[in-house]
């Protein structure tokens, strides 16, 4: 498969999964986090489409700081601890999607010869790494909510990475 087509499809799949998960969660904070992730995936797809058309692409900021704010608010709201474990499989799937995305963008970064592609793939690796950490945190939240309130840490260095 063409690497651009693969990458675009990967971003569409991640967006669809996050939107499905957002539709199925009763917790407002979790819904907000999932929708932020979905919007990031839309930005990624659009950037890749621009690169495919050989257009100049400036990577956009991710949503790490916004997600940190939502997580901080959720730690104060004990209602989220009633989340259903029915969503565990979706959260695990999200973790796997992000791991695949990171590996794919690392490979494309190594193969890239032009500065625009290198810059974009580097930004995507960082943002997908943050998405991975976010999905792992959501999985922890669903599987062990009491532990999550006491121990989860979210300290992004900027809007693109931890």
Automatic annotation (TrEMBL):
Annotated Rubrerythrin diiron-binding domain residues: 6-138
CDD domains in alphabetical order: Ferritin_like_AB
InterPro entries reported for this sequence: Ferritin-like, Ferritin-like_SF, Rr_diiron-bd_dom
GO molecular function: metal ion binding; oxidoreductase activity
Source superkingdom: Bacteria
PANTHER family, alphabetized: HYPOTHETICAL MEMBRANE PROTEIN, CONSERVED, RUBRERYTHRIN SUBFAMILY
The protein, known as: Rubrerythrin
The species this protein was found in: Desulfofustis glycolicus DSM 9705
């Amino acid at each position: 498969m063409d690497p651009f087509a693969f990458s675009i499809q990967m971003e569409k799949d991640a967006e669809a999964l996050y939107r499905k998960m957002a539709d199925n969660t009763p917790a407002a904070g979790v819904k907000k986090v999932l929708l932020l992730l979905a919007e990031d995936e839309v930005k990624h797809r659009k950037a890749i489409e621009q690169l495919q058309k050989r257009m100049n692409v400036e990577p956009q900021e991710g949503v790490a700081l916004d997600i940190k704010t939502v997580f901080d608010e959720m730690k104060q709201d004990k209602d989220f601890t009633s989340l259903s474990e029915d969503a565990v499989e979706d959260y695990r799937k999200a973790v796997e999607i992000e791991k695949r995305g990171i590996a794919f963008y690392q490979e494309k970064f190594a193969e890239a010869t032009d500065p625009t592609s290198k810059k974009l793939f580097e930004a995507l690796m960082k943002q997908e790494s943050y998405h991975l950490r976010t999905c792992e945190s959501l999985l922890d939240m669903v599987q062990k909510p009491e532990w999550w309130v006491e121990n989860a840490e979210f300290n992004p260095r900027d809007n693109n990475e931890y």
